[in-house]
Amino acid sequence: MAGWGAAEYVDTVKEITAAAVPVTFAGTVGLFMPAAAPPSRTALLFLSPWGFEEMCTRKFWRILAEDFAKAGIASLRFDYAGTGDALDVADQGQGLALWEDTAIAAAAVLRSLSGCERLILVSQGLGSTIALDVAERLDAVDGIALLAPTISGRAYLRELTIWSKMIDESMGLDETQRQTEGVTVASLRMPDTIAATVKTLNLMTRGHVGAPNCLVLTRPGRPSDADFATHLGTLGTRVEQAAYEGYDELVSNPTIAAMPLEASRKILDWAQSIATKPVTTTRKILHAPRAEALEGDGFRETPLRFGEGDRLFGILCEPLGERTGATALLLTTAYDRHAGWGRTSVTMARALARDGIASLRFDTANVADSPPLPDAPDQVLYSRDQHRDVCAALDLLEASQLLPAFAVGRCSGGYLAFQTAINDERCHGLITVNPYAFFWDETQSVDEALRFVPRSLETYGQKFLQLETLKRLYGGQIDARSAARNIVTALARRAVRLGRPLLGVLPFFAGEHEIVMGGFRALARRRVDISLIYSAHDIGLDHFHEHFGEDASALRNFPDIRLTIIPGADHNLTPPYARKVYLREVREMGLRLGRR
C-alpha cells in the first residue's frame, strides 16, 4: 500500500465505533443501528426533516442513534424517496404520501431487523407531519417525539423562502444567480406535488394521535409550538413538553452546527421511560441486515462500510455497462453529508456512471454518518486525521480492483484532495474546486476561519455598492466588525502578493509559498493530472494568486495544469451552468486517466 499507511493505527481498532449497518429497501438507503445488550422490545424509527434542515440534523441523528444503541434500543434512519441517496422518482404525483410510503416500508424493515414489534417515532420539522400520519397506519406505536414540528404548512413554506434567501445571500449570490423556481433552498428543490400538499397542512386541526405518548420540543420564540403541544393533550395522548435548547445553533449551517446535547438527553430519557422493558427470551429476527445494490439509469449503487472496524460509511457507484474510466473519489465539503450540497455528489456520480466512470462518495470521520475517531478532536476539518480516512477509501478501491483513482473536492474537500494527491501515489489525478487554501497553518483556529470566512475584495466592493447591503449594515444585520476585519485581511494578502518579489526572500513569507509550490512540483514529477476550478471572485483565488501570481504567470512552470474560471458562480457552484462545467472536468479526467 502506497502513501499513508494503516499499520500505525492497528492498536486503536478495538476502540473504534463502527458506522451503522447499511440496508436497502423500497429504492432507498437506510442505516440500521442494532441495540447493545440487553435489548429493549421497542425499536426507534427516525423521520427526518427536509432539505437544508436535514443536512444540519444528519450528524445529530447519528449521535442519537448511537446513544439509543447503548441504551438497548435499535434504530433505523433513512432517506425519503427521491432524496439523499435514494433513487429518483419518475412519478411524484402522490404528494407527501410518497415519503409516507417510504416511512411505512422503513418501519417494516426495522421490525424485521430488530425483532421488535413496538415502535417509537422520532421526528423533526416536516418529518413530524409524516410521523403523525404514518402512526395512524402502523400498529404498536408507543410514542412520537416531535422536534420543532411543522404545524402550519403555509407558515413553513414562507419560512423556507426566507431561509433560502438568507442562505443564498451568505454565499454571495445575487438575484440573477438564485434558484427561485418552486420551493428551493440550499440548491434542493421540493417536488411541486409535495409542496402543494405541504401548503394545506395544519396540525392544529388533527383530531387523533396514533400513539399514547408524545414529546414536543418547542423552538425559542415560537408560541405556536407550545399551543400545538396543548392541542395534542386535548386528544387524549400523554404529552411531555420541553424547550428545544440549541435548535438555532443546530440548523444555522451544517458547517458550524453545534449538536444540541441537552435536547438529545431529553429525547433519550423520554424514550427510555416509555420503551417496553427488555426480556430474556430470544426475539425473532426475520432478516440479517443486507445492502443490495440499487439500480437506476445506467448505474448501480452499493452502500457500504469500510476502514478499520467498519468505521466509515459511503456509496460506491458503478456503471451498469463496461467501466471505461478511472474511479472518482468524491470528497465531502466541510460537514455536508456525502450526498453533497444540493445532492451534487449524487447527481454527479450517476452521470459519471453512465459514461463508464465509477465513483466512491463517503463521509470522513465525525462527518454525518461516520463516527469520530477515538481521542480525535471534535474539529476534523483541515486535520491530518482526515488523511487516514482517504487512505482507507483508496484501500477499498484497490481491494475492489477499481484503481486508478483521482480525488475530487470543493473548498475543504479540495484541500484534502490536494493533500491526498501529494501523499498517496495511488491518486493519479486531482480536481480541486474553490479551495480556500493549499496549505493550512495548524496554529490557526479552524472554527474561527469557518465562522468568519472572508470574501474577495471584488465581492466586498460589489456588496457595498448595493442599497440592500447598506440597509442591512445600518440595521445591525451585518457583523460590521467581522466584515471590517475580513477586508483588512484581504487587503493585507493583496499587499503581500503585489510585494512578493521583495517579501518572498524573507523566510516568514516564503515558508508557506515554498511548501505549496513544492507540492505542485512533486505532483508534476509524478505526472498527476491536475485541474483547478474557481468561481470568479472566490476568496480562494486570492490564495491562488499568492502562489501563482496576479496574472497566474507561474502556471507556465506547470504546463499540464488546467485552470478554469467560472464567471457569475458562487463558492458552492449553485448555478446549473457552473455545475455542468464541474461535471465536464470530472468526466474528462476520468476518461483521460482510464486511457493511460
Structure write-up:
The protein is α/β, with parallel strands linked by helices and 596 residues long. Helices cover 39% and strands 18% of the residues. The protein is built from 19 helices and 19 strands. It has helices spanning 52-70, 97-114, 126-135, 153-170, 192-199, 223-233, 247-251, 261-274, 344-354, 385-399, 412-423, 446-451, 457-464, 467-474, 480-498, 500-503, 507-525, 539-548, 576-594, and strands at residues 21-25, 28-33, 42-47, 75-78, 118-124, 141-147, 183-185, 188-190, 213-218, 238-243, 294-296, 299-306, 312-319, 327-330, 359-363, 405-410, 427-433, 529-535, 562-566. The strands form three sheets. It has a nine-stranded mixed sheet with strand order 11-12-13-15-14-16-17-18-19. Strands 1-2-4-3-5-6-9-10 form an eight-stranded mixed sheet, sandwiched between helices. Helix 4 (153-170) crosses helix 5, helix 9 (344-354) crosses helix 19 (576-594) and helix 15 packs parallel to helix 18 (539-548). The longest helix is centred in the N-terminal third of the chain and has 19 residues, at 52-70. Mean pLDDT is 87; it is low at 1-13, 456-473 and 501-506.
User: Low-confidence spans: pLDDT under 50, at least 5 residues?
Assistant: 1-13, 456-473, 501-506
User: How much is the average pLDDT?
Assistant: 87
Q: Share of helix among residues?
A: 25-40%
Distance between the amino and carboxyl termini: 21 Å
According to DSSP, the number of beta strands is 19
Largest sheet: 9 strands, mixed
Strand content: 15-25%
Q: What general outline do the C-alpha atoms trace?
A: globular
Structural class: alpha/beta
- The DSSP helix count reads 19
Strand order of the largest sheet: 11-12-13-15-14-16-17-18-19
Gyration radius, in Å:
25 Å
